[in-house]
User: Fold these one by one.
Assistant:
Number 1:
Amino acid sequence: MTGTAKNTAQKDEVHLQYLRIGTDYYKIIKQPLASKDTIEKIVKWLKQTIKEDHGDNILRKIPKYDSFCLIPNHENYEREVHNSYNLYEPVIHKPKKGNWPKIEYFLNHIFREQYEIGLDYLTIIWKHPTQVLPILCLVSQERNTGKTTFLLFLKEIFGKNMTFNTNEDFRTHFNSGWASKLIIGVDEVFLEKKEDAEKLKNLSTSRLINSEAKGKDRFEQEFFGKFVLCSNNETEFIQIDSDEIRYWIRKIPQFKEENKDLLTEMKKEIPAFLHFLSTREIKTPNQTRMWFTKEQLWTDALKNVMRSGTSPLEKEIRILIVDQFLHFELDEVRLTPKDVIELLKHENNFFAKKSDVINILQKQWGYNPLDSPAYYKRWRYSIDNEGNEYPTTQQKNGRYYTFKKDNFLEKS
């Protein structure tokens, strides 16, 4: 194409830089970033300015839509849906049958014993992008594990439909930059405040979100965001309650050998991988609103994060009961809240309120006492005249709680 022909084509297509949504005009711009990359944005543009720049005739050529919409779809994408402009972007990679050994190697490294669940997770995002999914967290104190590479891999697949947030992005009201994204990735996440964790887990299951930008009125829109968090802090990057089911936490090991070109090599295999996802059957049945069950997502890494957020009293009660199992070689331990308070004071020099103990045993741990008082044995140490400790039992009567050794020690 000659320079003159190229300029003519550009002039003929200039109207495609603009949109009319309802009665308002918008321009599709490319905003430069410090990284020398650009991001595409749709910003309001004055009708008079468009006429001044390109003449009155351009207004008749500008595409016209009734409204914006957000319809995620990877296999049958449509830019125009019922005369509305779809803000969800098409994926640039087209599925094509082939091999993907580098991606397979990488995903095996990330998901290991949960490899099939990892494939199900990615298949669900590809086939059912509106499905609510757990918050995936990749953690490791070590370097060269592939945590950041996983985020960049997702970005290569989903393109403009994924964004990278900072910790502060979750604390501000202005969320228009990520409210319409399918995947929100955070590298070096550290949301130590309880309210941060509450906001994140509520967002993970929200179907609607109030989108708000500086200087503009907020509006309600559909939300399909999936959160992927990475952290070098393995236990304290977020607070998670013991009964929480919305987190999937994996500790990622170091690579045995470093491959600086791995992401580039995986990028070449994405079309073949997407063909695999398009034709693959999801093996995990849909059993919860987040598809997977707590048992399927349970990992030692999740247990360690839950422990780190445990209150001092809860930790002391857990230690006390574990000591009962181990020191007295019992298969079950029977205690009332009063017993717990007395033993904590006598053996650990720790003081507690009855209401706090009951709250932990019943609301947090899910144990219930007997309906009516009954006799039971309580074990403890006594001291003889020479100062030696020896185990003793005491016959007591009360509405005790029963703790089973096998179940309890699995969580210790």
Number 2:
Amino acid sequence: MRNIHEWADELSHNDHSLIIVEGKKDKLALNKLGIENVNSINEPIYLVIEKLVNYNKEIIILTDLDKMGKKLYARLKRDLTERGITIDNYFREFLFKHTRLTRISKIWC
């Protein structure tokens, strides 16, 4: 991957993972890029974690890259890995290293 367009293309063809984002705007932004396997957090974190425990795919956590998003990411990653869920950090790490984005909802702009 060299740029955000390749990132989006690769993510849109990733059928083996479920993508978790913070809110509806984040989900909409990814959907506009053709990324369909996206779920937004719309309930307390402990309920999200309990539902994902039974999910048999890798999880990609794409919370915002601001302070609150990083905190949410850390909690989700810790709690899910403790329960045996595999977290795929590849796409998140690309955003940190190769873009100046701080909000997932701004990706499609």
Number 3:
Amino acid sequence: MRTTITRRVLFPTFLAIAYICSVQAQSPDANRDDSEKTKEEVRKVDEEGFKAVLNKDADTLNQIYADDIAFTYASGQMRTKAQAVDDIRSGRNKLFKLDHDDIRIHVYGNTVVLTGRTQSTLRCCDADSKPSQVHRRFTNVYMKLAGKWRLIAHQVTPIAQP
């Protein structure tokens, strides 16, 4: 009788412990896979955004930029979503060439921080100014809102030529 009770109690307990251990053993790989998938999704959205800037595609920028984006130019000037998109649409800010490197992506749940270095040829803040080549560090912060990755913060900082 004691053996039957022991089997009834210990066997389900053993199965539960084995199941929990197997789930915990799989979690790091599952999290890593999710993280890599998230990084790829955000990298794609980030590239779409830069292509949209190059092509003056305001519709795509309106989809990528969050409504309350914190958009900061290298000068320190803050812009709203409407202002940042209008700067591209109007030609006040015109990107002619863009090369990125040193891209790093960090995932924090539904928020992703993407940093990198860029070398670009652009005309900034005045449609009559001449294009110049600039080197900058940038930080883009994305958040998953309503099922889509949205740029919630953008910051660029000038750096000396490498």
